[in-house]
């Protein structure tokens, strides 16, 4: 946060002598170089990085979400070998790319792809040896992502362990996204297994998983917030956790139903998410909050005020007002951040991450 020009000004003012200033500059430069070697690139959204992430997600999807039934007919050992070979290949590619600063992002994504092969390799071994200890065979491998089942627990634990090991060597934030998905699956499968056993009606199971997702999303947001506070200056490791935690919490919140009072509470929570976004300087909560408010207004339009003609025009005016409010907020965000820091109590200000204080 201290620039060399600041030190020059301090030397001109007589606060520092020339020799001390030179030693301090040399020390800070060395420290910055050391820190830069360990810091990963922050997430970007330019065209090149979009291609990087798109390519990684295509590979992950090909070996997971979109693997066909024919893929599973290869047999357990063939699936395990496929997962291991993919993991070794992408790990080797990632290690090579990681060694160069300009290709660190594709290198980290290659490591993330390698980690995502863990459930496939574990599934293959379990299938080959018949090690479905927690439940009956949960189905073909491509059901691992859309469907929850106690039989997936070893695969979820294995994925979390693989992500933790990868992060120790390659501290790339997107690997946390892979771990977050596995943790989410694990939280629901274990909770259902421990609380209700293996048999539960579909409607009851859906509602139970929704409540678990609400709690998990809140916990993920809290963890991401803590990471921002403790390690925010070393890289944006909280980005993917905020994204996944916010989506999990908001998705579970939005999938519930309730009376008019419950719908009003839903709107209030979404407004609070917008304020929370400003407090943390995390846009994902503003986006989700805005969608939630829109959903509530849509509910009013189609349910409560379905026969009130003027409401459609009023809703349009509200939409335009939200757009202009976003434009005004973007222009005045630094001033708003400075004002919040000035009027906020010290204990509350200490909970704002460095990225929010830098506004």
List keywords for this structure.
359 residues, 16 helices, 75% helix, flat
Total E-strand runs: 0
Cα distance spanning the termini:
13 Å
Structure class: mainly alpha
CA gyration radius, whole angstroms? 25 Å
Number of separate helices: 16
Catalogue the unreliable spans: 36-41
Shape: flat
Q: Biggest β-sheet, characterized? A: none
Mean pLDDT: 78
Strand content: under 5%
What does this structure look like?
This protein is mainly alpha-helical. 75% of the residues lie in helices and 0% in strands. The protein has 16 helices and no strands. The chain has helices at 4-12, 18-38, 47-62, 69-72, 76-98, 104-116, 118-129, 153-169, 174-196, 202-231, 239-254, 260-280, 283-304, 309-343, 346-349, 354-357. Helix 6 (104-116) runs antiparallel to helix 8 (153-169). The chain is flat and about 75 Å long. Mean pLDDT is 78; it is low at 36-41.
